[in-house]
Design a protein that fits this description.
This protein is largely without helices or strands. Helix content is 7%, strand content 2%.
Length: 249
């Protein structure tokens, strides 16, 4: 449960909150399980806070600093997180459904098992983020940075990933069915045993990608760079290859 003193200070406004935090730089504010739904924390400093199970439904956190905060199991559904700093934040199991994370920095963040379905991740930085088992159904991550991110077993079905960066990202056993990767950078990405059925990989860079055992049934690879890619055991039924030819079986 939240510390009542900490919660009262937060509700007094930005000036009081910042002064108190400056006087107590080593103290981690405890706002766990508090009801802060639809609150306006635009530009607020909430870094290194305990926000475990906190209700931030539709909260306005634009340009706020939540770096290294514990947001595990927090409710951030529909929250406005544009240009928000969430570097190395713990978002394990958090609800981020339909949240707006455009331009946010989640580099190194822990999002294991988080629900990010329908969220807007355009130009979002998720480099080195841990997204194992995350639900990312129909996310819009156009132009996002996911270099070195771990998306093993994540569900990105029908995700918009156009021109996103996935250098050395791990998609092992992920569900990427019907995802749109047009123009994305997947050099050295691990897509082994992933479901890539009906995915759109036109003009992507899949150089040296690991596609062993991947399901590419009905996928479109027209114009893609597959130089050095490992396709051992991959399923290529009705797959459109880089030269436009179709693998019948």
């Amino acid at each position: 449960m939240a510390n009542t003193q900490h919660l009262a200070l937060l509700k007094k406004g930005a000036v009081t909150w910042i002064e108190w935090r400056n006087l107590n730089p080593n103290l981690e504010p405890d706002l766990s399980e508090a009801n802060l739904a639809e609150a306006n924390f635009r530009g607020a400093y909430l870094g290194r806070c305990n926000l475990f199970k906190t209700d931030l439904f539709k909260a306005k956190l634009i340009t706020a600093n939540l770096a290294e905060s514990n947001l595990s199991l927090a409710n951030l559904a529909g929250a406005q997180l544009l240009d928000t700093k969430l570097v190395k934040a713990n978002l394990t199991g958090a609800n981020l459904r339909a949240a707006d994370l455009r331009g946010a920095d989640l580099s190194g963040a822990n999002l294991i098992g988080a629900d990010i379905s329908g969220a807007i991740l355009q130009q979002t930085d998720l480099g080195d983020a841990n997204l194992i088992g995350a639900a990312m159904f129909r996310v819009n991550a156009i132009g996002a940075n996911l270099n070195h991110a771990n998306l093993s077993q994540a569900n990105l079905n029908q995700a918009e990933l156009i021109e996103a960066h996935f250098y050395a990202a791990n998609f092992s056993k992920a569900n990427l069915g019907e995802a749109h990767f047009t123009g994305a950078y997947l050099f050295r990405a691990n897509l082994s045993f992933a479901d890539l059925s009906a995915a759109d990989f036109r003009w992507t860079n899949l150089g040296k990608a690991d596609l062993r055992g991947a399901n590419l049934t009905g996928a479109n690879l027209r114009g893609a760079n597959l130089a050095g890619a490992n396709l051992d055991g991959a399923h290529l039924k009705e797959t459109i290859m880089p030269d436009g030819s179709i693998v019948s079986s």
